[in-house]
Amino acid sequence: MGVYHAGSRAVQDRVGVRARADQVGRAVGAVLKPVAAAFLELQPMLVLGAADPVSGAVWASALTGEPGFVRAAGPRRITVAAGPVPADPLARALAGEGVRVGTIALDPRTRRRMRLNGRSRPAAPGLAIEADQVFSNCPKYLQQRERYETVADRAPGETRWGGELTAEQGAFIGAADTFFLTTVHDHGADAGHRGGNPGFVRVASPRELSWRDYPGNSMFLSLGNLATDPRAGLLFLDWTTGRTLHLSGEARTEFGADGDRTVRFTVRQTADIPSALPLRWSAPAYSPANPDPAY
């Protein structure tokens, strides 16, 4: 299939950006260029998203390692020398063959990001992913974190599962400046980034949160997927302690008369893992593109 499916086209047409989307879409390929391969090898973290093969729930998670743990192994393949801990919500999905996955490598130091969507399979000591789509995004709404350190003695705590947000988890989300969003469609999965000043994600109740969809590259891959399949997975990180908060549920987009868009997410499952990641990042410098979170 092409870069866009019917869901993305419907959103592009509704917003009136099909021509712009066609222009941006020319940069999407299936081959890892040398600059992309070099970028991946500098990263200590890779975010992945997929649907659980049993429950169908969509999740997002993160893998970490020393730079070089993600590496190009050919023009259309990357290897990831790490796998999820057994209690990670993506562990079952990533144990399968030919699993449709979306990935995003985000470098807070340079405010660069690239996405690779494809099919994964286990490959000791981690994964191999065959690329279907490879492309970069602009630095809009990325917070800059100038440095990180690896905390050698940090180990994941016990996963706390739930069916709704606790008050503390709601406060954690309300203070976030970044999260990762996984969506799916008939032919694949996509992992994207959302960022803003703290307060850009609003928690309405233990089962519902929302965020404004800020203007971006006009591709509407995430909203296009949601237009055809409402399942979604969210990942929030504590950039200091390594905590990961994973949410799985459904999302819908509300279009305002003035062109504004709000995404409302209904929580179905939560997985909260203390000290899941060994990385400790420096304090953020917020992106100058971030709008006022009040809405």
Architecture overview:
The protein is an alpha+beta fold. The chain has a single domain, classed as Electron Transport, Fmn-binding Protein, Chain A (Pnp Oxidase, Chain A). The strands form 3 sheets. Strands 9, 10, 11, 12, 13, 14, 15 and 16 form an 8-stranded antiparallel beta sheet that branches. It starts with 5 loop residues before the first helix and ends in a 14-residue tail after the last strand.
Using brief descriptors, characterize the structure shown:
eight-stranded antiparallel beta sheet; 6 helices; Pnp Oxidase, Chain A; Pyridoxamine 5'-phosphate oxidase family protein; alpha+beta; 295 residues; 42% strand; seven-stranded antiparallel beta sheet; 17 strands; globular; Split_barrel_FMN-bd
Structural class: alpha+beta
In total, how many domains does the architecture comprise? 1
Annotation field: number of helices: 6
Q: How many DSSP-defined strands?
A: 17
The overall average pLDDT, rounded, is 95
- Largest sheet: number of strands, sense, barrel closure: 8 strands, antiparallel
Q: Summed up, what is this model?
A:
InterPro entries: Split_barrel_FMN-bd (IPR012349). The chain is α+β, with helices and mostly antiparallel strands. The chain has a single domain (6-281), classed as Pnp Oxidase, Chain A, CATH 2.30.110.
Topology, element by element:
Elements: H1 6-15, H2 18-25, H3 34-40, E1 45-51, E2 58-64, E3 70-74, E4 77-80, H4 91-94, E5 99-107, E6 112-123, E7 126-137, E8 148-150, E9 160-162, H5 167-174, E10 178-185, E11 188-195, E12 201-205, E13 208-212, H6 221-228, E14 231-237, E15 244-255, E16 261-273, E17 279-281
Organism: Streptomyces caeni
InterPro entries: Split_barrel_FMN-bd
Protein name: Pyridoxamine 5'-phosphate oxidase family protein
